[in-house]
Each structure stands twice: as C-alpha cells, then as structure tokens.
Amino acid sequence: MIYYISFYIFTIMSGVLYHFYRNKIFLLIVVFAAILFSGFRYDAGNDFFSYYAILTGEKIHSDLEFFSNNLVNLSKYLNEPYIFYFLTSLIYMALMVYGLHKFNALGFSSLILLLFFAASWLTSFGYVRQFVAISLLFLATAYLVKGKDLKFFFFTILAFLFHKSAVIGGLIYFYYKVFGKKEHALSIYLLCYLFFYFVFVDIIFFITSFVGFYHRYIVQPTNSDGFGIFLVLTFLFIVQTCLAKFFKIRDRNFWVANNLFFLGVVIYASLLNFGEYVVRVAYFLVPFVYVSTFFLLKNMKGRVRIFYFGLIFSLTFFTYFYTLYLASNNPTRDFLTNYKFYFLL
C-alpha cells in the first residue's frame, strides 16, 4: 500500500508545482513515474499471473490478437517477463497523454482523472491488452473529431489488433457522426438513454453472434459486479451536463467529449447485468470524461471553478483509494496492494 500512497502524494506535489509554474514538465514527470510504476510491477493486476504464466511458458497462448501475441513472443524471446508489462504500460500511458494533447486537454485535472478515476490507470494493471486498445481508440477518436477519418480507422484497426473489443470503434464512429458533434436538450439525452438501455443489448447480441467472439458472455452472463462504477459514471455525467446547461457553456470541445462519455454511461447501464467481461466494453468511453472535465473547468471562473475542481479532486481520491480497498479485501486474491517492484524481488 505504501507504493500507492507515495505515488499519490508525489502526483499531488507535482500538481502543486504545475499550478505555480505552469510548466507541463511537472505533468510529464508524473506520467514517466506512472509508466515505471505500472511497467515494473509484480503481483499487481487481476490478470497479472495469467499473463505471467504465458510469459514464462507455463501456459499456451493461442487466442491472443496479433500485436499482443508479438509482444508476448518478444518477452519470451528475451526471457524477461517484465518487457511485456513495461511495453504495454508505456504504450498505454504515452498514447493516453498524447490523445489528451490532441484534444488540447492535457492538464492537471485530466491527469488525475486518468490516474485515479474509476476504470482507469489502476484497472489497466489487470486488463492489459484492452487498455492498450483503449489508448489507441482514444487517440483515433481525437483524429475523428478533427475530421481525419482515415487516421481514425487506421488507429482503430491497430486497437483491434491488440484487443478484439475495439470493434466498438465502429459504433463510436457512427454515434459521433449522428449524435456526438453538438449539445442536445436534456430530454434528448433521456430518450437516448432509454433507447440504449432497452435496445443496445439486442444490438450487441446480433453483432457478437455475427462476429463470433464474446457471444458466450451474452448468452451466459457471469455476474452483475460493477454497480458502484456505474453510479460514479452516472453521477459525474449528470453533474457535468447540468452544470454546463446552467452556466450556458457552448464550448464544442466539452459537448463532443461529454456526448462520447454519455455513450459509455448508457452502454455500461445496458450491459451491467451481463457481468464484467461484457460491461468492460464501456471502458473505451471512460477517458472522454477526462476531456469534458478539462473543458468544463476551463469555461468556469472564480469560486465555482474552485468548488468543481475540489469535487473532482475528492472524487478521484475516493475512487483511487476505494479501488485499493476493494482489491485488498477481494476474497480470491489481493490484486493490487500486494504490489512489488520487479527488480526488488
């Protein structure tokens, strides 16, 4: 636990320095530290030992995607399991930060959400391949928003070659073109929520039955874990949307990101009862709240801005340490706070 507390304190201290000096080098130092922290981890992440068994040759890997398979083979060839964890951590963090840069949303608020919010950095310790795919699709969407559709498809294909769930990029593309470009009335959001809640399961059922993978999780749901994450995501969307409406914020950057985050919320809600293997597809949309929060704060002034930053700070503090608490009390295995630094084993 001391590693996580130390990293949290280091991040906050760096954020204070960034506030006073307005130099992004302090943010990049935190990013570098996060890459080292996750890249050289041992016994941290709920799938850590599943990958470790593959990397050490104890388990055969026949169903990994192209790029994931090649990273595994590289680590096995060099006989260094940590290479896989380090490279995936490097790719994930580097692309997430570059994606924030392309959205013009790299700041302390977006960084603490990336590191400490639910279904974010800590979760990437376990769902390694998917979070690399998430970072690629996040960058792809930054290009989509700028009108560069070919780059969107290129990075979406790369994401798919890391994890098949990146097929959701097709839905993101059509959703953005039809719904995601502008602000909508609250009644429209409500109608869309009801539509997705009652119809999206049928869409997913059709897609998975057609392409083959993940269909068994729809037919035979595992559990309904993740209700807490659903509440946090829903709460933040409602608060941000209502504040933006109240203060008449017309910033297109905010509304594009907020609309994409909204898609994640409704997907999460509609798939919640099918278990974590299915609902995890909504994680692809969580990073857009980093962007929407950044632009919401940018358009606020005075005490309101301070109050809302305080709310985000408190929320990330809660989700970070509550995730660690849940991990430490997991009946199967403590999948985070048993953290060890690879070179100190």
From TrEMBL:
Keywords attached to this entry: Membrane, Transmembrane, Transmembrane helix
InterPro entries, alphabetized: EpsG-like (IPR049458)
Regions crossing the membrane: 25-42, 82-100, 112-140, 152-176, 188-214, 226-247, 254-271, 277-297, 306-327
Domain of life according to the entry: Bacteria
Statement: the UniProt record of this protein carries the keyword Metal-binding: no
Identification of the protein by name: EpsG family protein
Organism of provenance: Vreelandella boliviensis LC1
Taxonomy of the source species: Bacteria, Pseudomonadati, Pseudomonadota, Gammaproteobacteria, Oceanospirillales
